[in-house]
Each structure stands twice: as C-alpha cells, then as structure tokens.
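Re: that chain you flagged

S.,

Sorry for the slow reply, it's been a week of failed gels. I finally had a moment to sit down with the sequence you sent. For the record, here it is as I used it:
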Amino acid sequence: MRLSEFSVLSFDCYGTLIDWESGIVAALAPWLAAQGVEPERERILAAFSAAEAPQQQATPGMLYRDLLAEVHGAIAEQFGVARDPAAAQAFGASIREWPAFSDSAAALGYLKRHYRLVILSNVDRASFAESNRKLGVAFDAIYTAQDIGSYKPDPRNFAYMLERLAERGIAKAQILHTAESLYHDHVPARRVGLATCWIHRRAGQAGHGATRSPEVEVSPDFRFATLAEMAEAHRAEIGG
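Prediction finished late last night. Pasting the structure tokens below so you have them in one place:
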C-alpha cells in the first residue's frame, strides 16, 4: 500500500493538526494552581480524558465548547476543588487559543496539492473556524460533531462522512483517514473499512494523554511521528 494510491485525506483535527494537549494544559494548569493544586502535565491530561469521553456519550448533541465547560466541572471534582462556572465557560472558549503543531500548516499546504482534504472532528463549527485560521488551508469538506449529533468513536460520525463523500462521487477506497487517536479514530475507521494513517504525536511518551486507550488492538496502515514526515514520505514516493 502506498500513500499515493489515495486521493482524499480525512483528518481528525485536535491532537493531529492542533496541539490540543498543550492547549488543555495551558488553560487548566493556572486555574488549578490558583486552587492550590499543581499536578503534572500528564495528570491533567489523564483527568481530561477521564471526564471527556463519558460526557460525550451522555450529551452527544451538546456543542463541544459547552461540553468542555461540563468537562471542566468534572475535572474540578477529580482534584477535589469546587466547580467554577466562570472558569468552566472560559475553558470552553479556550479552543480558539489551542496552537497548531508547528508542521501542520506547511504539511497541509503540500498535501493539498495532491489530495482533497476533509475534516472529521469532535468539535463545533465556530470553534473549528478559529482553529482553521491557524492551519492556513481551505478544506474541501468539514464534518463536525455539531453537524452529526454524536462524537467519535460513535460509528455514526464515520457513516455520515462516508455518505456525504459518496454523494460527491468519492469511494471509500479513495480515502485515507489520518489521525492521532487510536480510540477516537483508528478503531472506528477500521471497523467501517477505511485505511488509516497514524500521526503518532505522542511517540516516545507513555500513555495516551488526553485520549483513552483503545478498547481493542488496531493496526494502522501507515505510521509517522509528524504530519511533516507523512508529507515527506509522499514526496519520496512520487519523486517530487
């Protein structure tokens, strides 16, 4: 299997293109410190992971920025501090501050010359618009949890994307789903028969950070530590 066999890249955004872990920690660490709690980065990410997935399952139709506010309250309880509604709303709004990975914009610019680019993200459209400004590329299609009414790894998200792309004449075999999270993306993508590319941003780090560990073993078709490495591999394939 070669990267150049595909004509469409469907992307997760947060964790793959946008450095959500740094954004989450930057938003939560100062607030926790003000409450007298100063946990390490990985403990903050583990608390986020423990709170986010159950909230997504409980309120699949909630806008992501509002869902993050609920997650903030659950994190407060995990650390034994009082819920703070104002800080919770600020956390929901912090998505606009989450940085892009340093290689995302340039790699996307290269890949745009060879593929149609699609977003399939657990986010609301307004929040994604803020992130998209950092990515510097016009995506050919954007499908969000707000559009679908559920959050990955719910199979409805992938079914929705495949149905919309089929309406454009794009077959499943043309699509390479490209993502960091094994739990949110690779397991459900493989279940619907998609080829996948793992952008393993946490390579060399223990655990799964802000995501859950996958409930089953999964083997992506491609694996790179960064999106820049993926772009370079494609360039090498085509002799560019």
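What I noticed first: The chain has a mean pLDDT of 96.

Talk soon,
D.
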